[in-house]
């Protein structure tokens, strides 16, 4: 591993790690963060009868429109209730204005079954209570339309927390299962938690059926009216590593989490399905038969990218919370060298198995002091840098090859059939650089 520029002890401190994996260091200072409203882009595609109404500024509206790439004549399932000067000055009552917008929206879009009021930096600055607004509007529109709220403010740790806040609000709204003495733990049911592209969900469901595992549900589903019943008989697998609040609310309802690596790459996906098989006592022969063909396809797809990526140095700036599972995939399956793995936040329990698969000398940095991290990146001189949009262009100008971390959330990357696509996301920038140099 390359030398690391020293950091003041007050800003960087090692955290004891009970696992056999690498030590985690903490860093505090100026951060580069992206807006949590971004999660709407993949959430609105998944929950097909929901609408996401951002209560924010024109900047919020431009951000969502640009990130989604929606043309002006399209009718997406998101929009913005603009907070203007009249709201800010107190001339207009912001709650009354919001009610007018919601009434107009639901009168025009009768296909909406769940309405999310999404908070933003501006709505939080003027102390607009969207939780109370949701309760008020629920009285008016329920049961035809359920109104929920969550914060997509850009002041959060990372942009993927927008999904966590959204799913957490859904879980909180689910009715409690009727209590009955002596719940039969023998009738366990499996819940997959985390927003997945429809194609990935379909592929995973086929494998679960080949494993003879019936009744598997995905959360969130494609229909907001068909939500799972979560109780003591529920066991769940996380499909995303950034769902800390959602997981806590699910466990508050009595569910149990299955510990597993995340389904990225061949190794992670195999272990993820194996965790489900173990929990439901599925014979190893049945599991192997179900995984053999998709695993072979994935290995073949990855092999052509390994030749280009092997021994290349990669540096992760903290952005998405996907960094540790991606680092495991790139180092163990593609032979890349990890110079630094920056992560906004490390959930030790959820990432325990991922950490155990990393080399003990891997430098994992939780949090960020962006100037010092840029200095370490300059000293390491990596072949590829994974970072947020705010750092990509300046780093490209300095001669680095970058990969936008947000692309790894917008793109289907989970499961066997996406393993080759995931590897290509990292090989493509290097191929482009070679072609430009030629």
Structure, described:
It is a single chain. Strand 14 (384-387), helix 15 and strand 15 form a beta-alpha-beta unit. It contains 17 helices and 15 strands. The strands form 3 sheets. The protein has a 7-stranded mixed sheet with strand order 1-2-13-12-11-14-15, sandwiched between helices. A 4-stranded parallel sheet has the order 4-3-5-6. A 4-stranded parallel sheet has the order 8-7-9-10, with helices on both faces. It has helices spanning 40-46, 58-68, 85-89, 94-108, 121-125, 130-141, 161-173, 198-210, 244-252, 265-279, 284-309, 323-333, 352-356, 370-380, 389-397, 407-410, 419-437; strands at 12-15, 24-28, 50-56, 78-82, 114-119, 146-151, 189-193, 217-219, 234-238, 256-257, 313-316, 337-343, 364-368, 384-387, 402-404. It is α/β, with parallel strands linked by helices. The model is unreliable at 1-19 and 180-185 (pLDDT under 50). The protein folds into 3 domains: 12-33 and 302-437, Nitrogenase molybdenum iron protein domain (Rossmann fold); 36-155, Rossmann fold (3-Layer(aba) Sandwich), CATH 3.40.50.1980; 185-292, Nitrogenase molybdenum iron protein domain (Rossmann fold, 3-Layer(aba) Sandwich), CATH 3.40.50.1980. The two termini are 30 Å apart.
């Amino acid at each position: 591993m390359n030398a690391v520029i020293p950091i003041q002890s007050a800003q960087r401190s090692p955290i004891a790690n009970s696992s056999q994996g690498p030590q985690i260091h903490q860093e505090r200072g100026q951060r580069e963060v992206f807006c949590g409203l971004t999660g709407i882009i993949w959430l609105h595609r998944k929950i097909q009868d929901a609408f996401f109404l951002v209560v924010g500024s024109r900047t919020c509206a431009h951000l969502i429109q640009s990130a989604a790439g929606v043309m002006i004549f399209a009718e997406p399932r998101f929009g913005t209730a603009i907070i203007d000067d009249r709201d800010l000055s107190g001339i207009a009552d912001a709650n009354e204005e919001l009610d007018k917008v919601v009434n107009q929206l639901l009168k025009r879009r009768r296909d909406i079954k769940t309405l999310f009021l999404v908070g933003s930096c501006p709505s939080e600055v003027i102390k607009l209570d969207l939780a109370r607004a949701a309760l008020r509007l629920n009285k008016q529109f329920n049961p035809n339309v359920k109104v929920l709220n969550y914060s997509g403010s850009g002041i959060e740790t990372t942009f993927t927390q927008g999904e966590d806040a959204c799913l957490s609000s859904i879980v909180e709204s689910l009715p409690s299962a009727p209590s009955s003495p002596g719940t039969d733990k023998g009738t366990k049911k499996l819940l997959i938690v985390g927003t997945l592209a429809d194609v990935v969900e379909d592929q995973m469901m086929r494998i679960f059926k080949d494993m003879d595992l019936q009744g598997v549900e995905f959360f969130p589903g494609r229909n907001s009216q068909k939500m799972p019943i979560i109780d003591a008989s529920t066991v769940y697998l996380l499909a995303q590593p950034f769902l800390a609040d959602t997981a806590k609310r699910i466990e508050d309802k009595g569910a149990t989490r299955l510990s597993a690596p995340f389904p990225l790459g061949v190794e992670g996906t195999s272990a993820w399905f194996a965790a489900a098989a173990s929990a439901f006592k599925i014979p190893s022969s049945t599991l192997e038969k179900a995984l053999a063909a998709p695993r072979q396809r994935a290995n073949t797809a990855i092999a052509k990218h390994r030749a280009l990526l092997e021994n290349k140095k990669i540096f992760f700036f903290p952005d998405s919370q996907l960094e540790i599972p991606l680092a495991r995939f790139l180092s163990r399956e593609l032979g890349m060298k990890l110079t630094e793995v920056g992560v906004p936040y490390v959930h030790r329990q959820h990432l325990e198995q991922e950490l155990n698969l990393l080399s003990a000398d891997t430098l994992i940095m939780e949090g960020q002091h962006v100037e010092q991290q840029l200095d370490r990146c300059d000293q390491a001189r990596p072949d590829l840098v994974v970072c947020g949009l705010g750092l990509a262009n300046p780093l490209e100008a300095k001669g680095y090859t970058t990969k936008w971390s947000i692309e790894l959330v917008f793109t289907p990357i989970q499961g066997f059939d996406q393993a080759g696509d995931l590897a290509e996301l990292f090989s493509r920038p290097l191929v482009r650089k070679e072609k430009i140099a030629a």
